[in-house]
Design a protein that fits this description.
The chain folds into 2 domains: 220 residues, 3-Layer(aba) Sandwich (Isopropylmalate Dehydrogenase); 139 residues, 3-Layer(aba) Sandwich (Isopropylmalate Dehydrogenase), CATH 3.40.718. Helices cover 41% and strands 23% of the residues. The protein is built from 13 helices and 12 strands. The strands form 2 sheets. Strands 2-1-3-12-11-4-5-10-8-9 form a 10-stranded mixed sheet, sandwiched between helices. The protein has a two-stranded antiparallel sheet with strand order 6-7. Helix 8 links the parallel strand 8 and strand 9. The longest helix has 19 residues. 48% of the residues are buried. It binds nicotinamide-adenine-dinucleotide. The site of nicotinamide-adenine-dinucleotide has 21 residues, from loops.
Length: 374
């Protein structure tokens, strides 16, 4: 095999963040190193600050040098931000500002959350195992529009009443770009999109449905169904196997992704990817990859955090920002092999089961990736 320096340099910016962020990101980087070693990829990782630790050092949650590095990167891998130290509700800057600012600055309009039921899910999810069999879905959530950003918003006094307003606003082009992305993804999966809205009540949802229908006409091989969000919430639990790609506006996607995480069994297991329109030097979307969990201050520094969400985020990075599908699958298989043989952190353990540290689970995954080579 040629020396790995003969290969094109792939520039990955790593933002460990706060709490367990550095612990789980260390695991994800070890896995990327193992993949680089095995396939001869030249991954160059550089660490920058974001969130609470950036506030401590720079007085801002998203320092200039962090943002500049992310803009120039091929992909960004993030741990988590936040913690009690920065929780003062009157604080001028908050750790979350770093994350929201980064999504906005990089134009990351699509959040992808794949959810698969594994052998471990069958044991720990509150949903019955027969309902979980074969669950493999992807929620595609619109991330930069809708009710979280729409104007007008705010409060006003009307007579002796206080009124608060939020606005669910979507333009055709905002719906079209996220719908295109969802249909493209479905084409690489099982060719089905379920678009979620509340078109029986909301005007913005009627536009959403109209545009999704227009986009669907360009993807004749993909089946489209529309679910009202209330029904979708029910079907996610009663027949989750029937979903492939779920396409949802910001608010609905936010709620449904947390609901869907129950299918996998633990927050610590789930990865996410946020993608936009800008392309990296490899010609793929510049993405932000992060586990869905937070900084878990209650377990930080104890080497017991589950690294799987972060490791699977690295797998998504390989797939979506680098086009390394085989490498992504090897990481996912290594994780499944590790978990199904009982090598789990405490959050996944059955009563009395032996538990491993973050580092030990990571070593199992790394070894499985490296051993596969032989
Ligand atoms: P959390 O996800 O950090 O923790 C919720 C529970 O899940 C805790 O009991 C924690 O110990 C456990 N948990 C989370 N990840 C785990 C893992 N990998 N392995 C094992 N157990 C894990 O949510 P929270 O407690 O609501 O928030 C804590 C802090 O994280 C807050 O400051 C919050 O603002 C921040 N937060 C950040 C993000 C992010 O960076 N994307 C997301 C959510 C919350």
């Amino acid at each position: 095999m040629p020396d790995k320096d003969d290969y094109v340099e792939i520039n990955i910016v790593v933002l460990p963040g706060d709490g367990i962020g550095p612990e789980v990101i260390r695991a994800a980087v070890a896995v990327l190193d193992a993949v680089g070693e095995r396939f001869g990829h030249n991954f160059q990782t550089q660490e920058y600050l974001i969130g609470g630790c950036a506030i401590d050092n720079y007085g801002t949650a998203l320092p200039e040098n962090t943002l500049a590095a992310c803009r120039a990167a091929d992909a960004v891998l993030l741990g988590a931000v936040g913690g009690p130290k920065w929780d003062d509700p009157n604080a001028k800057v908050r750790p979350e500002d770093g994350l929201l600012g980064l999504r906005k600055e990089l134009g990351l309009f699509a959040n992808l959350r794949p959810v698969r039921a594994t052998s471990v899910s069958m044991q720990i999810s509150p949903i019955r195992p027969q309902r979980l069999q074969g669950v493999d879905l992807m929620v595609v959530r619109e991330l930069t529009g809708g009710i979280y950003f729409g104007q007008p918003r705010g409060r006003k006094i009307i007579g002796d009443e206080v009124q608060a307003v939020d606005s669910m606003v979507y333009t055709k082009s905002e719906v079209r770009r996220i719908a295109n992305l969802a249909f493209d993804l479905a084409g690489q999966r099982r060719n089905k999109v379920t678009s979620v809205d509340k078109a029986n009540v909301l005007e913005s949802s009627r536009l959403w449905r109209e545009v999704v229908n227009e986009v669907a006409a360009h993807y004749p091989h993909v089946t489209l169904e529309h679910n009202l969000v209330d029904a979708a919430a029910m079907y996610l639990i009663s027949r989750p196997q029937t979903f492939d790609v779920i396409l949802a506006a910001n608010l609905f996607g936010d709620i449904l992704t947390d609901e869907a995480s129950v299918l996998a069994g633990s927050m610590g297991l789930l990865p996410s990817a946020s993608l936009g329109e800008s392309r990296n030097t490899q010609g793929y979307p510049l993405g932000l990859y992060e586990p869905i969990h937070g900084s878990a201050p209650d377990i930080a520094g104890k080497n017991i955090a589950n690294p799987v969400g972060a490791i699977l985020s690295a797998a998504l990075l390989l797939r979506h920002s680098l086009g390394f599908e085989a490498e992504a699958e090897i990481v996912e298989d290594a994780v499944e092999k590790t978990l199904s043989t009982g090598n789990v952190t405490i959050d996944l353990a059955a009563p009395g089961q032996r538990t491993l540290t973050t580092g030990e689970v990571t070593q199992f995954v790394v070894k499985s990736i490296s051993d596969d080579e032989e």
